[in-house]
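Much of what follows relies on a compact textual record of a protein's fold. A complete example follows; check for yourself that the lines match position by position.
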Amino acid sequence: MVSDTRVDYLEELERELDTRGLVARVVRTRSGPAFLRVVNPEAASLAEDVTCAPAPESHDHYYWWSWGERMHRVDDPGGAALKLAHVLQPLCREARGRAVGRT
């Protein structure tokens, strides 16, 4: 079972993301760890699941990307929220055109 401390950290990040216009909810499962589902309401296909766990080499907790890479320290949920907001930002049309070789 996931500790309440980890869920508390996820809930702190949830509050930070809500203030930035992203939809975030802690999901508790019966068999797996709790995670934070984050969705950009302006582009629902842009979503991320964030977990919270200690780093393997220490007891310090971090937020983790869904692919298992460490994202950010839990003592700075605002910084983690900025990273998520950046990643879940849709590309503007002009930038998409440049990305595929159009102007």
About this structure: The mean pLDDT is 88.
